[in-house]
Design goal:
404 residues, alpha/beta, three-stranded antiparallel beta sheet, 14 helices, 12 strands, 42% helix
Length: 404
């Protein structure tokens, strides 16, 4: 009983706090990936194929360089854009690796992970009501970040029959007078699909004809198998229309360092820099030291990790096919995206039962948007032993389903 009728109880206040939230934020759904990860966490019997994180730890020399910098007192702010040395190294790396050229002084901005870079790009570009075209299935944050920026996400379906490539026809079918931005994510999370130079050419024509700006999330650029990644910014006429986003999390096994970068026309970088300096000021100097060391002395280790992912990729894809799950050939990232339609279960039902009955955690494809229903995302960024056991458990589970 509240002894002071003029005061509300904590319970009463708590119930009403949602009313203070912006309606837009109230409507955003929590991550479907994290839901399955949280269900699996703490249970040692569960093999997790859910979270897109390398099982490698950051190489020792990268950690050692960071420790040494701390011992020398490198604990200050840096330039808002990032240290000149790191921006120089990023520019050289992109030119050497993907034949795209950016001026470090005004076309490269170091960010707190690639996620901040995507957020900055959207907030710098979007006015209320602008439509953002998002090929799907896709990385979860694109649509919520678009909504937070005041834009309207428009998903464009990509399909297994096309190896989950974006086609010019599907892109054109979704363009309206309000279309302003196209988000690209190749190699793709969750499908592992890639785009070749020839694939990009008709997309580039649609982009130019419809005066679109492109945010190209190339965080998995290094993780391609059989052929080299082609940056959309390298397509003739597309560099000034493209905001290239990448980082160190995936290829350099540096997820927890939260180091990313964004490259674009100086006018666009200047706009993003204004938001960046008022929100995070600069990326942490310790992470910048680590990123510089990774680019300077870590290329061979990066390549060895990619070779290991390729071996696991072949094991997982063949294993999934052997147990009766159709799986297209992922040529990038570290995900397989098998179809579970043959089991008669929805993506969510399959993933839930797989977790409970087989103790394997994977992410239902429907959480990745249009075109994801009927599929399951399986990360192969874990040990061969775990992958082999997971496939065995999934095989037993699928057999039980077939037997009724």
């Amino acid at each position: 009983m509240n002894v002071n009728p003029g005061l509300r109880s904590e319970q009463e206040v708590g119930k009403s706090m949602n009313s203070y939230l912006a309606p837009l934020v109230r409507e955003i759904q929590p991550s479907g990936i994290r839901r399955f990860f949280d269900l699996a966490s703490g249970n040692k019997d569960i093999i997790t194929l859910g979270v897109g994180e390398p099982d490698f730890i950051t190489p020792w020399h990268v950690r050692e360089a960071t420790v040494h910098s701390l011992e020398r007192g490198y604990t200050s702010y840096t330039s808002n854009s990032g240290t000149p040395e790191l921006r120089e190294a990023i520019g050289q790396y992109l030119y050497d690796s993907f034949q795209v050229s950016y001026e470090p002084s005004n076309q490269i901005l170091v960010t707190v992970g690639g996620s901040e870079a995507i957020d900055l790009a959207l907030r710098a570009l979007i006015s209320p009501g602008d439509e953002v075209l998002v090929p799907a299935p896709c990385y979860l944050p694109y649509s919520p970040l678009t909504s937070i920026a005041g834009g309207v996400p428009v998903e464009i379906g990509t399909y297994a029959k096309d190896n989950f490539k974006l086609t010019a026809e599907n892109l054109l079918a979704n363009i309206t007078p309000k279309s302003k931005v196209l988000i690209l994510n190749y190699p793709s999370n969750p499908t592992g699909g890639i785009m070749t130079y020839e694939d990009w050419l008709p997309i580039a024509k649609v982009v130019e004809d419809n005066d679109l700006i492109v945010i190209s999330d190339e965080i998995y650029a290094e993780l391609t198998y059989g052929q080299k990644h082609v940056s959309f910014a390298s397509i003739p006429g597309m560099k000034d229309r493209t905001i290239l986003v990448s980082g160190f999390s995936k290829a350099f096994a540096m997820t927890g360092w939260r180091m990313g970068y964004v490259c674009a026309h100086p006018d666009l970088i200047y706009a993003m820099l204004k938001i960046h300096q008022y929100t995070v000021m600069c990326a942490p100097i310790m992470g910048q030291v680590a990123a510089l060391e990774a680019l300077t002395n870590g290329i061979e280790e990066k390549d060895r990790m990619i070779d290991s992912y390729n071996q696991r990729r072949r094991l997982v894809v063949q294993g999934l096919r052997d147990i009766g799950l159709d799986c297209h050939e992922p040529q990038g990232a570290f995900y397989a995206f098998p179809s579970v339609e043959s089991t008669g279960l929805s993506s969510d039902e399959f993933a839930q039962r797989l977790l409970v009955e087989a103790k394997v955690a994977a992410v239902p494809g429907n959480v990745f948007g249009l075109g994801g229903e009927g599929f399951l995302r399986c990360s192969y960024a874990t040990s061969v032993a775990n992958l082999t056991e997971a496939i065995d458990r999934m095989g037993e589970f699928v057999n039980k389903l077939k037997q009724g």
